[in-house]
Amino acid sequence: MAIQDPVHSLLRTVTHHVPLCPSGAAEGPEVFQYRFRIEDLPEDYYALAAYHSLKGLPLGGVRLNRRRVETSDKLAIVREANYFDAVKLDRRCSRDLRMKIQKDGPGMLAGDLLAFGVGMLRAMNDDPVEPIHHYLWDRHGRIHTEYEVVYARIRALHWNSLPLLYRTQKESYASTNVIYGDALGELEQLWDRRADTTFLDQVAASLQRMRGQAEIAAFLDPPLNLEEVMKMHYRQKLWTTPPRSGRALLRRVECLLEHTTIDTDARTVFRDWQSPPPVQPPAEPPPSQAETGVWDGDCSGYDGWLGGDRGA
Predict the structure, then answer these.
(1) pLDDT tens digits for 236-254?
(2) Residue 90 pLDDT > 90, yes or no?
(3) 64 three-class SS
(4) Rounded distance, CA 49 to CA 69, Å?
């Protein structure tokens, strides 16, 4: 199923109409990228990229049709926002994961969908003592659809960002059927260009890179066991290999578009977290130890930091 709220509708329009073109790779199959001029992109895109994606304003505070960006700043903003990737442009999706032929740049966004038929791997942001998760839920929320199907709930590890709690924590990712607007627009562009068999053959050849050269697009606080998490996500794949020809690619595009439900009523949900419990300082040693000046162990719970100086 595909998300179709105002933000993802905007991204869908952009990736549908901005043409994919070969980048002129020096060796190997062509890498396809979006080719555009800054005047080709709508002002709403620049407002989204500048005020929500880069400055971090909540979507409710960004009135796209009232924001304007200076022409001299537009190219830098597009590059900084990583072009048309919803994971970078929509902070409600900022910790979600996907595979791409190239993590950065104006490259294809539906590579994992076309090559293997997997949806988005969505971050649950469910560690109750992680400030980043609190911030995202409180300020930006999470985009929600009633049509989402979770095929697997994957446990991941991350490093807690609290200075007094630097330790490995657990969180969850959901392997889903969700497609974001950027990928849907790309599918529609490929379908519109279905008569160009040379173009489709070149795209299919480019997608062969997804087998061993793909990069994981993880931009904000990725899990420590990132590769293992992605491998578990790919157990839900529809196809085992990328399409071998333009004809096979077109059949996949047709299948995906035919079986994709578009949710025009997707909404943003928020969660109220209770404040995390304060970190307690180490307990005072028992009076008997304090009087003798000898410690039987470090009260913080770690016994190795004194080394060979015990009792010195």
Answers:
(1) 999 999 999 999 999 999 9
(2) yes
(3) helix
(4) 10
- Alpha helices for the chain (secondary structure H): 6-17, 43-47, 74-80, 86-89, 111-116, 131-135, 181-192, 197-207, 226-233, 246-258, 287-292
Strand ranges (E), the chain: 2-3, 20-22, 32-34, 98-100, 121-123, 142-144, 150-159, 168-176, 215-217, 262-263, 267-269
Please return the burial class of 71, using the count of CB atoms within 10 Å of its CB with bins 0-12, 13-18 and 19+: exposed
- Domain-wise residue ranges, the chain: 2-280, 282-312
The CA-CA-CA angle for residues 106, 119, 151, to 5°, reads 160
Q: Report residue 253: phi and psi, to 5°.
A: -60, -45
Which pair of structure tokens corresponds to residue 44?
Answer: 């709403």
Separation between Cα atoms, residue 59 and residue 141, nearest integer Å: 10
213: helix, strand or coil: coil
Q: Which is nearest to 50 in space by CA: 61, 39, 34?
A: 61
CB distance 279 to 266 below 8 Å: no
pLDDT digits (tens, 9 = 90+) for 207-239: 999 998 999 999 999 999 999 999 999 999 999
Q: Nearest CA to 283 among 273, 295, 270, 268?
A: 295
Which token pair is 103?
A: 């993590």
Phi, psi of 150 (to 5 degrees): -100, 110
